[in-house]
Design brief:
The complex is a heterodimer of chains A (about 100) and B (about 500). Chain A has 3 helices and 4 strands, in the order ββαββαα. The longest helix of chain A is centred in the middle third of the chain and has 23 residues, at about 55-75. Chain A is about 45% helix and about 10% strand. Chain A has one domain. Chain A is mostly helical and about 100 residues long. With about 500 residues, chain B is mainly α. Chain B has a single domain (about 10-400), classed as Sodium/glucose cotransporter, CATH 1.20.1730. Chain B has 24 helices and 2 strands. In chain B, strands 1-2 form a two-stranded antiparallel ribbon. In chain B, helix 9 crosses helix 15. The relative contact order of chain B is 0.17. The chains are: A mainly alpha (about 100), B mainly alpha (about 500). The interface between A and B is large, with 61 and 66 residues. Chain A: Keywords: Membrane, Transmembrane, Transmembrane helix. Chain A: This is DUF3311 domain-containing protein. Chain B: It is found in: Cell membrane. Chain B: Pfam families: SSF.
């Protein structure tokens, strides 16, 4: 398998989300935090921006989850030089991936 | 949805226009790529050359069916704020992809995979685990397709205002779907998904705008009304419901990512960059699709209070009727919305049918019935069996066998049992074929048994996850009890990937 390359074109270790424990710790915190188990059942008030606070907190966790997963896709995933991958790979380069994902 | 005031001739015109466009796309693809039907990879995976825009829309349109609009708004109406979980579980699907897609994409490209079962055969060698995985996936796909056909019937009945017998209309749309799929395979399906995805997005946004207009222009007013009249729908749910919420997020997050048509879209990406960019954008789509539908359901509580379970199922149609009465713009947009809903159903159904045909072609026919058959013939057999499957499912949809009806509920519960074979199989070299097979069988039997026995959950945890826990336990303990080295076929590519990732 051809590895990813850094901006200078040097080979670098592929990045894979499964190998990054913090990715899954953050995901778990955002999933568990988004479920309102820690609020007293039956609670409606207080309202913030006209919405029950517990629901607003849950919504905020979901928005954070979307941001986190989107960020992980872009920055923690660089397995291969596209196009050197075998059948069908046509576009992009590992360098471009790297540049897109940042350091 | 059966009494749309704007149904009738305009609805028929919109459906006809959608059908013509879809057929045109199929014809265009087949003219542009004459050999598209000759090979499995070309037909079922668009040759593995889907670019970023098309891949994004085909992921989107396949994942968001008409049910995400007409089914989820009533769920929000009945449950209130706790239905926010639908937005979370649709977002969690991207987390499900991240568990396996990066490495599976790399291996699939190198090995030329066409179906999800190709991974099973490559990794575990043994025929029985591949066959069981194929059966579980075919079962889930067939049930999913059945749901789409039923939804298609309701959508078309509403939009044509009963002026066309809805069974004839469904058959008409199925023929259109088959025609463009046959002409252009995955490429045609993916290109039609672009149009279908845009129609759905625009439609639900306008429905929300119209609903808000009718509700007085403010979501805050809607929430005040809910708190004043039905405070339970704004209250923190009981702990058991919270457990159920988390359980559903995990089950859908992993299960929906493992749908065969979802896995095949990983294979079809033209590059890793394309795939991760598409998934990165997909992470935001639940907020602008399921989130919007959630808001529409809450608005329904204000506009149509007191609907029972059956009545609430008509909620989207009821709101659309009111919105269409605002002015000509909203009238036209509601016709387009329901056309979009039908298109979204078709876009999910076509992807599911193509995936089902591919498993029949490659994993059943070319593997077990006629080894050595040429690819063109295998593709033809897949198409033929696909048509037969649709015919049987249509008969079932219109004459549901009451005794068997529970069997057709099983979908995620069975599908999620292939998860250890993919996720553990990709990262744990020792994982052996025998425990994978017995784990899948035990998990499917337990999850299916719980559902058929009417046990919806165990202390709030869905039967599918209970089965998955047993499945994983069998895989892990069974593998650890085997002598190292006595395991399955070596997998050098997986080892390479692991080593390089360390």
């Amino acid at each position: 398998m051809a590895g990813a390359h850094d901006d200078a074109g040097r080979p670098s270790a592929p990045r894979e989300p499964i190998r990054r424990p913090w990715v899954w710790i953050v995901t778990a915190v955002l999933l568990v935090g988004g479920v309102p188990w820690y609020w007293p059942p039956g609670t409606v008030h207080p309202l913030v921006l006209g919405v029950p606070l517990w629901a607003l907190v849950s919504m905020a966790f979901t928005v954070a989850l979307a941001a986190h997963l989107s960020h992980v896709c872009r920055t923690q995933w660089a397995m291969a030089d596209d196009g050197a991958d075998g059948a069908g790979g046509t576009g992009g380069t590992g360098g471009a991936d790297r540049a897109e994902g940042g350091a | 949805m059966n009494d749309l005031t704007f149904g009738g001739a305009p609805g028929i015109a919109v459906l006809t226009a959608y059908a013509v466009i879809m057929l045109g796309i199929g014809f265009w693809v087949s003219r542009r790529r004459p050999g598209v039907r000759d090979g499995m990879k070309s037909y079922y995976l668009a040759g593995g050359h889907l670019g970023a825009v098309v891949l994004f829309f085909t992921l989107y349109a396949s994942q968001y069916s008409g049910n995400n609009v007409v089914g989820y708004a009533p769920a929000a109406y009945r449950s209130g704020f706790t239905w926010w979980q639908s937005v979370t579980f649709m977002t969690a699907i991207i987390g499900g992809y991240l568990l396996f897609a990066p490495r599976l994409y790399t291996v699939a490209k190198r090995e030329g995979f066409v179906t999800p079962t190709d991974w099973m055969r490559y990794r575990f060698g043994g025929a029985r685990s591949s066959l069981l995985a194929a059966v579980l996936m075919l079962w889930a796909l067939a049930n999913y397709l059945l749901e789409q056909l039923v939804a298609m019937g309701h959508g078309i009945a509403g939009l044509t205002g009963g002026t066309v017998p809805y069974q004839a209309a469904v058959i008409g749309f199925v023929v259109v779907m088959l025609a463009y799929s046959w002409m252009g395979g995955m490429r045609a399906v993916a290109f039609t998904d672009v149009m279908q995805g845009i129609a759905l997005l625009v439609g639900v946004t306008v429905l929300l705008a119209g609903g808000l207009w009718l509700a007085g222009g403010s979501l805050g007013g809607v929430v005040d009304h809910i708190i004043a009249t039905e405070p339970d729908k704004a209250a923190v749910p009981p702990v058991r419901d919270s457990v159920n919420w988390l359980s559903l997020v995990v089950m859908v997050g992993i299960g929906a990512a493992l749908y065969p048509h979802a896995v095949q879209r990983i294979y079809a990406a033209d590059s890793e960059r394309t795939l991760k960019r598409s998934l990165s954008r997909m992470a935001w789509m639940p907020l602008v699709t399921t989130g919007v539908v959630f808001a529409v359901g809450l608005i329904g509580i204000r506009l149509f209070p007191g609907l029972d379970d059956t009545g609430s199922e008509q909620l989207v149609g009821l709101i659309a009727n009111e919105v269409a009465g605002i002015n000509v713009f909203f009238y036209v947009m509601m016709i387009l919305l329901f056309g979009g809903v039908v298109a979204a159903i078709v876009s999910t159904a076509d992807s599911v049918l193509l995936s089902l045909s591919s498993i029949i072609s490659k994993d059943v026919y070319a593997r077990h019935i006629a080894p050595g058959a040429d690819e063109k013939k295998a593709v033809a057999v897949g198409k033929g069996v696909g048509v037969a499957a649709v015919a049987v499912l249509l008969v079932l949809a219109w004459n549901p066998p009451t005794l068997l009806v529970n069997i057709f509920v099983l979908k995620f519960e069975l599908l999620i049992q292939v998860a250890p074979a993919f996720i553990l199989g990709l990262y744990w070299k020792r994982l052996a074929e025998g425990p994978v097979f017995w784990g899948m069988a035990a998990g499917a039997a337990l999850a299916g048994g719980l559902v058929l026995a009417g046990v919806e959950d165990v202390y709030g945890v869905h039967g599918g996850l209970v089965g998955l826990a047993l499945n994983t336990l069998v895989c892990v303990v069974g593998t650890l009890m085997k002598r190292p080295g006595a395991g399955p076929v070596p997998v050098p590519e997986v080892r390479d990937a692991e080593r390089s990732a360390d």
